[in-house]
């Protein structure tokens, strides 16, 4: 459909797909099939992270598709993220090199600081490293060509501004929780002002977060929260356009000029999430969705509390 972008342009001048496959909670034994299904369905962005513990399976799946002639490496956009222990002084480059080995590639298209907070390996000790010092490490690995673009995740605007004020490699992408019930309007406006692409995670309201298991098998306690896909306006627009509530939420995010990485390991749902380029929400449709009165952050990243670089400290005070 005319006017429907399949990619946006980073400040580096290279394109970033507007829709990617998220892989949080996608176990190694299922993520390979999901990646293959996504790429065959037309996805070109695959998003992972060290702490997802699935980089190796993703790298294997991608290599198999390349060997089969389904896709070329240069047609893909691979994102991974450095976890908190990898943000400690002197650790970032070697951490990225290990990710590259697991992903079986010489470079990633985007490398993100998963959080603004550095910890020791088992996260029992907070390391008081400033966001400026963290960003200096990202500047170095970008200049070495190990990552074509660099960015941040779960950073607030003040922290991003501190990185920008260093006048080093700019922040290319900010990946944040962003959905109908947490639209991040101020963050989006800030990023657009500074030519930073915003990537939404939890675009569908993260209904699967309640199934999350810690490495030790334990589960987290989640506060009750309204479900974006159950919103009456979303349901009404789904009926109007002959689409699913998920497709309405994804299309809404797309038309806000953002990128997104919905997670699924279900082949039919992976295809469904991709089928958002053949219709358009009207101005009135968008206004109806943007008129929601619900404001609900789902991921407060409580482990950051007390860290000098806690991105959400102000929100904790308000609560």
Automatic annotation (TrEMBL):
Q: Which domain of life is it from?
A: Eukaryota
Q: Which residues catalyse the reaction? A: 52
Gene3D superfamilies registered for this protein in UniProt = NADP-dependent oxidoreductase domain
**Which residues does the UniProt site feature Lowers pKa of active site Tyr point to?**
81
Q: Which Pfam families match?
A: Aldo_ket_red
Q: What GO MF terms are annotated?
A: oxidoreductase activity
Domain NADP-dependent oxidoreductase, which positions?
19-290
Q: Where does substrate bind?
A: 114
Query: What residue stretch is flagged as signal peptide?
Result: none
Matches recorded under InterPro entries: AKR, Aldo/ket_reductase_CS, NAD(P)_OxRdtase_dom_sf, NADP_OxRdtase_dom
- What protein name is recorded for this chain? NADP-dependent oxidoreductase domain-containing protein
Q: Which organism is it from?
A: Caenorhabditis nigoni
Organismal lineage: Eukaryota, Metazoa, Ecdysozoa, Nematoda, Chromadorea
